[in-house]
Amino acid sequence: MLIRAKNLVKNYEREGVSHRVVDQVNFTMDSGEFVIVKGSSGSGKTTLLNLLTGILKPSGGSVFFEGDDLKKMDDGKLSEIRNHRISYIPQNDTLLSNLNLWDNLRLPFFLGKGGDLKEGELNERLKVLLEEFGLSDRKCSYPRELSGGEIRRALIIRSLSLSPDLIIADEPTGSLDPLTTLTVMEKFRRIAKEGIAVLAVSHQPETFPFGDRLYEMKEGRLLPAKVFTNKK
Ligand SMILES: Nc1ncnc2c1ncn2[C@@H]1O[C@H](COP(=O)(O)OP(=O)(O)OP(=O)(O)O)[C@@H](O)[C@H]1O
Ligand SMILES: [Mg+2]
């Protein structure tokens, strides 16, 4: 088992009243699985992802990565998981405005997130991904010269480039047209088949059949919504 949430709870105080935003979530994911979570705005999806990546500390319950409780890990182990094992595409993430697209894509590598990867190997991977996502001719563009959808695609490319074990993506296709959305979903499907686990939040029904399992977040509870079989 790659990641497991056990009785996970997150409460937030608002005007002196405690609100349960993530409510007793139990959830497991194995390598090679592609799981999609839907749910209305404010239902707790982003909060759940932030708990799973260890960015937020739970009010109750635990997250286990390969059986180890994130709460009990020292900072070194936790940052090793965050930097090398999990690749997170936050909901409102963006690129650094003073770097062009190519340098933005290479930034995590230069921040030491590449593990054993060689620079030449990274460059080759990035070139293939840029081609696949239709951004080859935008390498020298600065973020202000890119559209919202192009920036989303770039963030996806960046998350795929460092071969993590788990990709967590918060509405990765939110601002993409239907065709590009399908390209991204097909890519996630393919990398899941290669053994990487993918957890994505999505509202678009056309994306759901690409996953193995669909969940719905409802007022903090994570409810199984559908299992898809007969994957290509
Ligand atoms: N830091 C915080 N302090 C207090 N309340 C918060 C905090 N972060 C989120 N919330 C509240 O928790 C609830 C869940 O937020 P969350 O961002 O997880 O929702 P979501 O399902 O991702 O919504 P969306 O689809 O709009 O992105 C919301 O009501 C939000 O206002
Ligand atoms: Mg959200």
Task: Provide structural commentary.
There is one protein chain. By secondary structure, the chain is an alpha/beta fold. It has helices spanning 45-52, 75-85, 101-113, 119-132, 148-161, 178-193, and strands at 3-14, 17-29, 34-39, 60-65, 68-69, 86-89, 166-170, 197-201, 213-218, 221-227. It has one domain (3-227): P-loop containing nucleotide triphosphate hydrolases (Rossmann fold, 3-Layer(aba) Sandwich). The chain is 33% helix and 28% strand. The longest helix has 16 residues, at 178-193. The chain is globular and about 50 Å long. The chain binds adenosine-5'-triphosphate and magnesium ion. Residues 12, 14, 21, 39, 41-47, 91, 217 line the site of adenosine-5'-triphosphate (ATP).
Descriptors:
single chain; 4-stranded antiparallel β-sheet; globular; Rossmann fold; 28% strand; 6-stranded mixed β-sheet; alpha/beta
In brief:
With 232 residues, the protein is an alpha/beta fold.
Q: How is the largest sheet built, in terms of strand order?
A: 6-7-8-3-9-10
- List the uncertain runs: none
Find the CATH superfamily.
Answer: P-loop containing nucleotide triphosphate hydrolases
- C-alpha Rg, in Å? 18 Å
Q: How are the secondary structure elements laid out?
A:
Blueprint: E1 3-14, E2 17-29, E3 34-39, H1 45-52, E4 60-65, E5 68-69, H2 75-85, E6 86-89, H3 101-113, H4 119-132, H5 148-161, E7 166-170, H6 178-193, E8 197-201, E9 213-218, E10 221-227
Parallel strand pairs: 3-8, 3-9, 6-7, 7-8
Antiparallel strand pairs: 1-2, 1-4, 4-5, 9-10
Helix pairs in contact: 3-5, 4-5
Residues 45-46, 91, 170 line the site of magnesium ion (MG).
